């Protein structure tokens, strides 16, 4: 290891340890406010301000904009702890670091300065998956549409909206490979209205409402506040910023899954140490002990795969390299695998807990949150198929990962 790389790692370790101490100090308050947040259908103001004040919304933001610019693998350890305390709080943290993190490295200087004029912990919410339409005009785009899943949108200052690019007649424009052209736009919170439709099984406190533009009219968004989904290149943030939306979103959902999965097993162990029923003490039952050990093995194995994959990426970036197609396949597969595992072990925990998980409470909430998070489009079987294609070597020399698969 070169001396420069060693010094960089030492400095980052010190920064991480400081942030880790901050996170652990606020977890009790986040837990204490969780029921209020659930009732509000969004994070409580107390929780939001705690996360903001302690830099949890800007862990991945570049230092040029005032962010911590932590390696993804370090930020993951912090985000999973927030998700352990409250699933919805963890979700909002990873969404802002993914969505805001990507725009913070891709927007040109004048656009980044505008969005982050109040500092790096500016909340950005919305949906970059194209559900709207944009047509090019002088100096920017005119957009319209209806978007879903605006996690954290109540506290957002800026909105992140993906759009299919069209010509003046509304015909969708295509890339050379036939895929639609997509532009991701960013506009102030006061340009939208919420639909008030977040009536869901779990992740209720994320407030992931649908939204549309005010009066249904077209909105002008300047070029400086947009990036091209397919060709945007990192403007700042070092080598790790080259992961783009593909890697940042995988990081976010993986971090969240680690936290909520761990919490479900921890709650079951706590219950088992106290519960006595007609069959005896719960944690003394042979079948239960066997199945709990298997659940731990599944979770810990999935977690090890995750940190092996992300740790390898951190080393690659520290030495000035960029992620390979195979490395992205690893983090994509690890993402899906941990969701499969937490779905399985949380179902085991729910069944083993019997009535304790049936009623309102921590176990029921985490069970609902887990089985809501598994529904995200990034868990699609088709993405795992693309990982298989990579591992089989069935891709071209210039292949590149996009959000939903490999191009080439």
Question: Please, could you describe this protein's structure?
Answer:
The strands form 3 sheets. Strands 1, 2, 3, 4, 5, 6, 7 and 8 form an 8-stranded mixed β-sheet that branches. The protein starts with a helix and ends with a strand. It folds into 3 domains: 3-115, Acyl-CoA dehydrogenase/oxidase, N-terminal domain (Butyryl-Coa Dehydrogenase, subunit A, domain 1), CATH 1.10.540; 124-228, Butyryl-CoA Dehydrogenase, subunit A, domain 2; 239-407, Up-down Bundle (Butyryl-CoA Dehydrogenase, subunit A, domain 3). It has helices at 3-32, 34-40, 45-53, 72-85, 87-106, 109-115, 244-272, 286-318, 325-353, 355-358, 362-373, 381-391; strands at 124-137, 140-150, 158-166, 182-188, 192-194, 209-213, 219-222, 226-228, 276-277, 280-281, 400-402, 405-407. With 408 residues, the chain is α+β, with helices and mostly antiparallel strands. The protein is built from 12 helices and 12 strands. A hairpin with a 2-residue loop joins strand 11 and strand 12. Helix 7 (244-272) runs antiparallel to helix 8 (286-318) and helix 9 runs antiparallel to helix 11.
Question: Any chance you could write out the topology, listing elements then pairs?
Answer:
Blueprint: H1 3-32, H2 34-40, H3 45-53, H4 72-85, H5 87-106, H6 109-115, E1 124-137, E2 140-150, E3 158-166, E4 182-188, E5 192-194, E6 209-213, E7 219-222, E8 226-228, H7 244-272, E9 276-277, E10 280-281, H8 286-318, H9 325-353, H10 355-358, H11 362-373, H12 381-391, E11 400-402, E12 405-407
Parallel strand pairs: 1-3
Antiparallel strand pairs: 1-2, 2-6, 2-7, 3-4, 4-8, 5-6, 9-10, 11-12
Helix pairs in contact: 1-4, 4-5, 4-7, 5-7, 7-8, 7-9, 7-11, 8-9, 9-11, 9-12
């Amino acid at each position: 290891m070169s001396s420069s790389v060693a010094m960089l790692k030492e400095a980052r370790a010190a920064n991480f340890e400081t942030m880790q101490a901050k996170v652990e100090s606020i977890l009790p308050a986040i837990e204490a406010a969780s029921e209020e947040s659930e009732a509000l259908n969004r994070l409580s103001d107390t929780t939001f301000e705690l996360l903001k004040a302690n830099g949890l919304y800007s862990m991945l933001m570049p230092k040029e904009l005032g962010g911590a610019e932590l390696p993804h693998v370090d930020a993951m350890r912090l985000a999973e702890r927030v998700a352990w305390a409250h699933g919805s709080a963890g979700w909002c943290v990873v969404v802002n670091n993914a969505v805001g993190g990507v725009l913070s490295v891709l927007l040109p200087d004048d656009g980044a300065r505008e969005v982050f004029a109040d500092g790096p912990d500016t909340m950005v919410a919305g949906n970059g998956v194209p559900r709207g339409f944009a047509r090019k005009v002088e100096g920017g785009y005119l957009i319209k549409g209806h978007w879903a899943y605006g996690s954290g949108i109540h506290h957002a200052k800026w909105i992140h909206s993906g759009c299919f690019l069209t010509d003046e007649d509304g015909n969708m424009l295509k890339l050379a490979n036939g895929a639609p052209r997509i532009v991701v736009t960013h506009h102030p919170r006061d340009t939208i209205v919420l639909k008030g439709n977040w009536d869901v099984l779990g992740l209720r406190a994320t407030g992931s409402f649908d939204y549309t533009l005010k009066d249904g009219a077209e909105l002008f968004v300047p070029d400086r506040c947009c990036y091209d989904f397919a060709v945007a290149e990192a403007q700042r943030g070092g080598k790790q910023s080259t992961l783009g939306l593909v890697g940042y979103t995988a990081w976010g959902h993986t971090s969240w899954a680690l936290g909520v999965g761990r919490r479900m097993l921890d709650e079951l162990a706590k219950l088992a140490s106290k519960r006595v029923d007609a069959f005896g003490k719960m944690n003394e039952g042979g079948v239960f002990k066997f199945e709990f050990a298997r659940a731990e093995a599944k979770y810990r194995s999935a977690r090890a795969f995750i940190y092996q994959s992300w740790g390898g990426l951190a080393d690659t970036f520290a030495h000035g390299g960029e992620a390979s197609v195979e490395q992205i396949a690893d983090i994509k597969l690890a993402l899906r695998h941990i969701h499969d595992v937490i779905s399985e072990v949380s179902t085991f925990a729910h069944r083993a807990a019997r009535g304790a998980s049936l009623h309102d409470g921590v176990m029921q909430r985490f069970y609902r949150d887990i089985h809501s998070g598994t529904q995200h489009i990034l868990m699609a079987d088709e993405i795992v198929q693309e990982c298989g294609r990579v591992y089989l070597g069935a891709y071209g020399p210039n292949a590149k990962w996009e959000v939903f698969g490999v191009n080439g």
